[in-house]
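Thread: quick sanity check before group meeting

JM: Hey all, I'm pulling together slides for Thursday and realized we never actually wrote out the predicted structure for the chain we discussed last week. Dropping the sequence here so it's in one place. If anyone has concerns about the input, flag it before I start.
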Amino acid sequence: MQILLVGAGLSGAVIARRLAEAGHDCHVIDQRDHIGGNCHTRRDGETGVMMHVYGPHIFHTDDQQVWDYVNRFATFQPFRNRVKTTVGGKVYPLPINLLTINQFFGKAMRPDEAREFIDGLADHSITTPQSFEEQALRFVGADLYRAFFKGYTEKQWGCAPSELPAAILKRLPLRFDYDDNYFSHRFQGMPRDGYTPMIAAILDHPRITIDLSTPYSPDMAEQADHVFWSGPLDGYFDFQLGRLGYRTLDFERFTHDGDYQGCAVMNYGDREVPYTRITEHKHFSPWEQHERSVCYREYSRAAGPEDIPYYPIRLVREKALLQDYQRRAKATQGVTFVGRLGTYRYLDMDVTIREAMDTASLFESCLAKGDPMPAMLTPS
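JM (edit): ok, ran it. Output follows.
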């Protein structure tokens, strides 16, 4: 069959590879001039540092099959994401752990003492947290919430934490030991040569053709037996029902002689600091040595029509509009919506790859049975 894949990021690459290996001809297009989507990496010409062009991407998963898959196409180096945050002129480790708690309160508590102490600070009158703010107050109490979550969240999302769903905070751990590894998955690492060569290797198959700097047009679908769409869901329908809300990021690049901050990610929790964090990219490749450094100050704002969409907002208005677009998508023949933008969800890389693998498998199964391929495979 002739398969058109819109988007040369992880979703498009993984689906294309699987279907090419099954004997289908896959045409991958992307409106950008590079593959990899927001995972795109490149060498900085000035410093030689491997840059995460659209912000940091750390690979972490508990999925053995996904881990084996990425290691098929790249050599992964061990990497632990040890985030720090500057609040009130002091530096603390994140996620909140025993060291954070002891530093912040000027104590030297053991795990059981700290657990009892935090429980005493938590707002037990909140039995079923509905918002990010309520979840935080129930989770760690007012002092830690104001220091580590309130200002950062206001900058990141552009609204009060009381307007955000509690589920956003539920993803973050609270630890009563000194473990400062941001993630807790079995497999964690970085591709030694960056994500772009890994995705290039996935796409390296004689039945896959790639056209970059190529925007999608509806007539392309007429030449294909099926389309996999990993662009914005609302964009497929030319935004006819309105635009789904996203946050976008602006990066202020600067260089430094030596080591600027001593870690890959430094958050800034104070509301008066306009940026959310500084990323120092050479620390994402600790196996390399560089005399100079390149950093990004990261600013979050509402995405406009010409901006790169990063984080789906998914508040009340967006959820209602999403349901309208999902109904329209499910009534559409010959296209399947995949990935972060195509399903309007925040997805880690391993989940993106897993869903792409499963989508390709389902497509083959539908072909074998003569069943139609669904347009939407994921719940809202």
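AS: nice. The CA atoms of residues 80 and 181 lie 6 Å apart. The chain has 13 helices and 17 strands.
JM: adding both to the slides.
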